[in-house]
Specification:
11 helices, 274 residues, Rossmann fold, 6-stranded mixed beta sheet
Length: 274
Amino acid sequence: MLNQATMDMLTAMKMTAMAAEFANQLKDPTFNELGFEERLGLLVNAEWNRRQSNKLNRFIRNARFAVPSATVEGIEYHEDRKLDKAQMLRFATCQYIDEGHHIILKGASGNGKTYIACALGNAACRRFKKVQYIRMPELLDELSIARSAGTLKKVLESYKKKDLLILDEWLIRPLSPQESYDILEIVEARCHKSTIFCTQYESEGWYTRIDPNPESDSPVSEAIMDPYYPQRLRGSGGRQRFHAGAQRLKGRQRSRRTGSVTDDPFAINRTVKY
């Protein structure tokens, strides 16, 4: 009776794994050979594992990945793809997030950019980092609606809290002036956070897609591009050319917009063939 009451209280306190482990210990006489501390340790460990698993699932669910099942372990390293597995495993450590780097995945539609981006996002979730995946058109729509509804500040604050933002279909079309300013708001809000860009365009062409008017002298393009001077990882092979890269996010001050990429493992040029 006392044992049942204990399990009921554990369940009421939402310690369901501990309650299940306690019931298992009562049924299995071999646990009687263990001391109190050992049995208590098993109870606590069961509850801890359940909560960590639930936390991970929540992080992955909140990230809204296009491919929720994508994992670094699931990336295919066929010979013709010539992907650098060591490089991907380094990215999976999330050091680039801790040090404020960005990753650019460049290639034509269908070459696996989204899967790799989601796999790296999944790796970040496993380290309990807050991740958000979103397509560029969806982001522009969200910012436009938020501006109209007067909730833009709230939306920007939510993106600011993310440790990693994955922008798929980055600059898939040229931006309007208002959209450029909206993207600038995101860049300013996340000036010290990491981003993964999935794009079909060379970074040199980003300027004209951010500000399609060649006669314009608007500083918006420069303001958006300032944190993202990419040193890409170049290569070719497989279906399309694939470029990936990472750079350190330079300290940004309004009075100082210049800087250089430091000589670290994520900033030096390396070769990846895809």
